[in-house]
Amino acid sequence: MADVSIGRIFRRGFAGLFAARGRDNRMQFWLFSALVFGPLVTLQFIVQMILSFPSVDLSGGQGAIRTASLDAHFFESVAIIGTVNLVLHLIGALLLVTAVARRLHDRDRSGWWSLILPFAVVAVGLDQARRTEAMAKAMARWMAEARQTPPEGIGDVFAFPARLQAAMPGPDWPAIVAGLAMLWLAIELVRAGTAGDNRYGPRP
């Protein structure tokens, strides 16, 4: 019976960070992916929680000044969180490049296709940062308008998300291409490997 322990998955995955030769089956690949992205997602959540809440100002202060400070903190946090997310996802993608290559070998595909993963993370991350920046600018403008002219009814309140969505630019072409490439890659990664030996080695 094959050894499918977490220890073996861990050793096989991290020992092969710089070795793309050979083949990995689906269980090895997906469990190792969970071991890589689990801590990164946890760290991402912690960073978002820390940055999303402003520090408590016990000295009080004038309302307008305090409101402006909170707004500045919020929009600054949005930009920082976007950068942190991009960096963490890129780290995860780089850690998985060789594992993706071995999984593709199991599908009898060239391991060079694994480079889709970091390319897609960067392309989609930069596009998301661009769209988030546009959203933050629109929010800042509309929040300032709302303080001067408060919403008159529930319709105005529900209209805000629609206006915000309409102000966001659409995805750019690199992000669209990256998304389509990632869709193909994901389909390959979830499919079973070839039966028996192939040109990349024996069946794992």
TrEMBL record:
InterPro entries: DUF805. It comes from the Bacteria. The chain crosses the membrane at residues 29-51, 78-100, 112-129, 173-190. Keywords: Membrane, Transmembrane, Transmembrane helix. GO terms for cellular component: plasma membrane. Pfam families: DUF805. This is Uncharacterized membrane protein YhaH (DUF805 family). It comes from Sphingopyxis panaciterrulae.
